[in-house]
Specification:
It is a single chain. Helices cover about 50% and strands about 10% of the residues. The protein has about 150 residues and is mainly alpha-helical. It has two domains: about 1-70, no CATH class; about 85-148, no CATH class. The mean pLDDT is about 90. It binds zinc ion (ZN). Zinc ion binds next to helix 3.
Length: about 150
């Protein structure tokens, strides 16, 4: 069991009960899939080895793309691929957060809210990277990743 699965198992049902009406259904599915990953809820595969006379039972994975157990190997492969693409030069990690006052709006309006967040953060990075006070370049590049 992963740490995320432990957390979701303990707190997921009460979280969904409290916030479920304002959560996208896909978020509830992710929580429930991760809770059930590699448990009897997902079913079992049985491997029978007649040569050795052994039988092996394995609980199936949920297969959800957000599940850290199911996607660990893919995540490592993705990271290796991205590291090969890194250009020479300085790199900075900049984090933009949503102000507390907007979070209740963001939960049920994620498409509009995250679109505005990416637009505002992109505009800010373009403006500041050209400013001599910060980077002062004319060829900066960036990519955005949404962590929820
Ligand atoms: Zn899984």
């Amino acid at each position: 069991m992963s740490a995320i699965q432990d957390i979701f198992t303990e707190y997921g049902p009460s979280y969904i009960e409290r916030f479920g009406d304002n959560m996208p259904s896909v978020h509830k599915k992710v929580i429930n899939d991760i809770i059930s990953c590699r448990t009897e809820t997902c079913g079992m595969t049985v491997y029978d080895c007649p040569d050795r006379g052994t039988v092996h039972h394995f609980y199936r994975s949920c297969g959800n793309r957000h599940c850290p157990v199911c996607q660990h190997r893919k995540a490592l492969q993705w990271t290796e691929k991205q590291l090969k693409r890194v250009l020479p030069g300085h790199h900075f990690m900049v984090t933009f957060t949503v102000p507390q006052q907007l979070r209740d709006f963001m939960r049920p309006h994620q498409k509009a809210g995250y679109g505005a967040l990416f637009a505002a953060s992109s505009d800010s990075l373009k403006k500041l990277s050209c400013d001599e006070k910060y980077i002062g370049g004319d060829r900066s590049g960036f990519s955005g990743v949404l962590h929820t």
